[in-house]
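Q: For a teaching handout, I want to show students what a protein-ligand complex looks like in token form. Below are the inputs, and the small molecule is coproporphyrinogen I. Please produce the holo structure.
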Amino acid sequence: MRQAGRSLPEYRELRKSGTLIELCETPELAAEVTLQPVRRHGVDAAILFSDIMIPLHAIGVGVEIVPGVGPVIAAPIRDRRGVERLRPFEPEVDAPYVVETVARLVAELDVPLIGFTGAPFTLASYLIEGGPSKSHALTKAFMYSEPELWRQMLERLADIGAASLRAQVNAGAQAVQVFDSWVGSLSLADYRQHVAPAVKRLLDGVADLNVPRILFGVGTGHLLEAMRESGAEAIGLDWRVPLDQGSARLGPEIAIQGNLDPAACLCSWDVARERTLEVLDRAPERGYVFNLGHGVLPETDPALLTRVVEFVREQTQVRA
Ligand code: 1CP
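A: Here is the structure, written as tokens, with coproporphyrinogen I included.
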């Protein structure tokens, strides 16, 4: 999740030194930002500091990450010529700074590092809409009208994602997470027909690396069974699906992570504690990783997050 970003004063301080993309391109700083939440909260794993748009920026798609808005695309992709601009990504050549950041982190961290990439649908939605969108209507219209071109676009994005993950694992990342943040806007039938094959292609592309592959979406309760078919070892759940139900639907072979509503961390400690307990009470005995259901909200008090982490650790010991 975009943890560090938004709630830590030490992050905001570092962020003053340049744009988000410049920060991602500077291994020393990107590594420092990755370490900040680990140091402060004592979590069990680190997530690389980068952004899902970095590989696209690195292959020459004009991307700007506008503060308070998100990724904005200079020339949105809406036709074949646009799709053909999505050339193969060679991380070692196009984005050596990511590889170097991972290598630095692995040398320094005493917890595992999670690498990540954007999933084809979520990347396509930024490329087609030109920026963040609530309805993803242009994306869906493109998918419905140009199914063959859409398929080619998603295949290219899947290959870019797989190349990115492969480079991160080769540099030492111990698990990978695929963020399909906006795919919940599709029906199950459309997901199966127009998106699932590309997600599978991405995950198959790194299957031989033998690291856990986590697939995450927001508002994807209706897609869980189809997401499982991608081959991921773990599925991330937002807060809409009760953990016990999600777990029953996915079965004991799939690990699950997430589930606390980030809004719970804007409340008093008593409320946050109660909400955390509810999540833990519904968690399966094995194969559950506690996490929020989506990114930390910028207004969150970091001290409350630290308390949640300590509380989960305590509860885990009590229940063991
Ligand atoms: O802990 C971390 O900070 C990890 C680094 C990280 C990750 C994993 C960032 C830095 N971005 C991401 C992934 C990412 N980026 C996702 C997938 C996860 C999710 O759903 O939250 C998405 C959808 C993006 C795109 C993006 N980048 C947005 C969302 C816009 C929208 O459509 O609503 C935003 C606001 C950004 C900017 C960004 N990237 C990262 C941070 C910390 C920030 C915001 C703060 C800043 O500009 O400094």
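A: Two things your students might notice: The longest helix spans residues 147-170. The mean pLDDT is 96.
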